[in-house]
Amino acid sequence: MALVLGGLGCGLLSAPGSAAAEAVEVDLDYVCTNGVARTPVNLEVTLTLQTALAVGQPLDIRWGIKYKDQGRFLSPGLFQPGARVSATGAVGIGGPWSGELKSLGSQEQARLPDGDQLTLPELISGAVTTTAPGVIEIKPRRLLIDFTPPPSDATFNDDDPAVSYSAEWTDYNDRDVNFHDVGRDVHATEANYAEAYFKFTGTGVDFITEQDSRAGKVQFSIDGRPGIPATADASKHPDGSHAGVANQGNYTLWGMRGLPYGQHELKVAKLDDKWAMVDAFHVVTEELADPPKQFRATCEPVLKPSTIRVVVGSPTQSPGQSPSSGPSGEPSSSPSGGSSGPVTSPPPGGSTPTPTPSKSPGGSSSPTPSQSKLTSVVVIGSPTPTITTTITLPASTPTSPQVKVTPKGGAQTGEAPETPRSPAALLIGSGGAMVFGGVFSGVVLRRRRAAHANGRSRTV
Questions:
Q1: What structural domains and CATH numbers belong to the chain?
Q2: Where would I find the beta strands (DSSP E) of 203-247?
Q3: What tens digit of pLDDT does each residue of 102-130 get?
Q4: Where is the signal peptide (predicted)?
């Protein structure tokens, strides 16, 4: 059984129905720019997938990625352990319909000094389950590398280099230990509209001062916009009652959360004739649901990738029967349960048409435009689901798709009829399962490496 990658950029694969499933490994070179790629970074990418499947088998696309030369992705700052590098590889899926399958993977990082090398995930994977015979065309697309900082918090004293002051402030050191000031020092002023500035990176910030009945009101703004709340008074409790205390340092007067991760500037301005103190600032980075966009590196293939064809065989000719197949081997038009059957979406009128195939002179069913139904196609990678397009499937699908066959080591000996365009390869999300051989009875994998345009090949 042979796999041929054609010179026109398409792979002609073995005919379905064989007990042995073909696998192909395609080598690609990618170049990455922006984000954590401070200079262009070259990657070696190996795509691995099966090229002949029985109906109901998962199509699992795996990406092996590694650095190609001395270029590296670099940490955008100093981070404690727990930062994460994630990779998302996309392939276009064509044939009777169009969509995209994303393969995902991530790698947790150790403690990272600023500019330190980032460790890549060794393998990223995504899978879908096939539910009808047909030919699926796979075309490698972009690869995204994201960096997510870990949750963290840090306290910055009033004399930290990240803090600056207008001329009206005075630095007081060696304060009484009973005041509990951070670092036993503060900056203080009695001048109206005196300002202090603090630059930080994170998603939240707190202003720390001394609570004192002699203190006054201060105003807060972040990146030129009013803080929430905009003002606070160190002479009062949070409920607005008067604070009958003096020199209670390390007191969090004000704080704000939910900022977009990145660099921000907090401005503190004194509003009245009472005095104000800056004891410290506290910065937090909350758990991030999505990687910050400013760290994203985008990778593109160096050369135009070849198209890889995956043949999905008929249940009557392949090992294993599709759970959604009827006794005749054709997919059932209305599955009774489970996630592996087609998902039928009603048309705008609210009802689902019932296909009624008509017989052709040769005795086979041939669909007409009025016999088509809408089917939602869901593609799921691990761990994030991705929903692709909605397509139209014919009501009747032949159960014996034919493709060209080239025996290994020999010349072309014959050619079966061309695959009709009416068969549709319906993909239903398999929950991100990474199934790759040894799961379905009677299926044996033979892994092969197909040469890409750069001429590298290897057979295992």
A1: 4-149+296-331+363-450 (no CATH), 152-285 (2.60.120.260)
A2: 204-211, 217-222, 225-233
A3: 999 999 999 999 999 999 998 899 888 88
A4: 1-20
